[in-house]
Design brief:
The structure is a single chain. The chain is α/β, with parallel strands linked by helices and 269 residues long. It folds into 2 domains: 47-133 and 232-268, Periplasmic binding protein-like II (D-Maltodextrin-Binding Protein, domain 2, 3-Layer(aba) Sandwich), CATH 3.40.190.10; 136-229, 3-Layer(aba) Sandwich (D-Maltodextrin-Binding Protein, domain 2). Helices cover 42% and strands 23% of the residues. It has 11 helices and 12 strands. It has helices spanning 9-20, 22-41, 73-84, 96-100, 103-106, 121-124, 166-174, 187-195, 206-215, 241-257, 259-268; strands at residues 47-52, 61-62, 70-71, 88-93, 112-113, 127-129, 134-143, 158-162, 180-184, 201-205, 219-231, 234-236. The strands form 4 sheets. A 5-stranded mixed β-sheet has the order 9-8-10-7-11, sandwiched between helices. The chain has a 3-stranded parallel β-sheet with strand order 4-1-5. The protein is globular, with a radius of gyration of 25 Å. 38% of the residues are buried.
Length: 269
């Protein structure tokens, strides 16, 4: 705090005494700067707040038995990262569109997004990504009794897609012109819609569709497409740079020491 010096030798003398302790004052100013930087490292000091669109198994799902209340490949990865950064993991359920647009990140609702977010040039305009952590495919999920064997068979039928995703974009580019695309908020809406016969297929990331096949043999993935997609953890554009770098370094360390493979094999092995 700046102080105004009043006239008088006593006050002047006091000022000189304080000046003699000038190094302490200087350190306090530096500490203030450090505190400001620390405050921008995470939204809440000591915590890593992560937003995800849930459910989206096997990447994220609800699980009351875990400390965070969530489970999945992404969740296990960020838990391991939080442990390495000596931070407490806090998971928050979020709309995917708000994640991929960067809205929940720039508004400081969370530090980073971990929700099977494909790295694209369009998204890079609004958010920054850590190093890629997963390679994915697009796929088509149908009921085995439907007789549908490919995307071409969906002419005149309804395809479920998730809002704001690369799967939706792929369907827009490749589905038959007469097909109807039903845009729903999450896999938690798409899967029940397919089971209820409200849609004829789901076009989305392969691991998610595969999880449904593993849960119910009445459904099958009939087509896959290599789209050179990679997932990345998302951060607010131009901010939390140090945290983003630390997350990338933690990921690399986990690849080097086998932690990544252990988590990967837990879900995809």
């Amino acid at each position: 705090m700046k102080r105004l010096l009043k006239a008088g030798t006593a006050v002047a003398a006091l000022a000189l005494v304080l000046a003699g302790c000038g190094s302490t004052g200087s350190d306090n100013t530096g500490s203030g700067d450090d505190n400001a930087q620390a405050a921008d490292y995470t939204v809440v000091a000591g915590k890593l707040t992560v937003c995800a669109d849930v459910p989206y198994p096997p990447f994220e799902d609800f699980d009351d038995s875990t400390a965070s209340g969530f489970t999945g490949f992404d969740v296990d990865l960020v838990q391991a990262i939080a442990d390495r950064l000596d931070l407490e993991l806090v998971m928050m359920d979020s709309d995917f569109d708000a994640l991929q647009s960067g809205l929940v990140l720039t508004s400081d609702q969370c530090d980073m997004g971990a929700s099977a977010i494909t790295i694209t040039e369009a998204r890079k305009a609004n958010i920054d990504f850590a190093e890629p952590y997963y390679d994915s495919l697009q796929s088509l999920l149908v009921k085995t009794s439907s007789g549908i064997a490919s995307l071409d068979d969906l002419a005149g039928k309804t395809i479920g897609v998730q809002s704001g995703t690369t799967g939706k974009h792929f369907a827009e580019e490749n589905a038959p012109a007469s097909a109807t695309l039903l845009d729903l908020p999450s896999d938690g809406d798409l899967w029940p819609a397919l089971q209820a016969g409200q849609i004829d297929a789901i076009l989305q990331d392969y691991p998610v569709n595969l999880a449904h096949v593993q849960a119910d043999s009445n459904y099958a993935v009939v087509q896959q497409w290599t789209t050179d997609e990679q997932y990345g953890f998302a951060f607010p554009k131009g901010r939390r740079t140090e945290l983003r770098q630390d997350v990338s370094q933690a990921l690399q360390a986990m690849r080097d020491d086998g932690t990544y493979d252990t988590i990967y094999n837990r879900y995809f092995g």
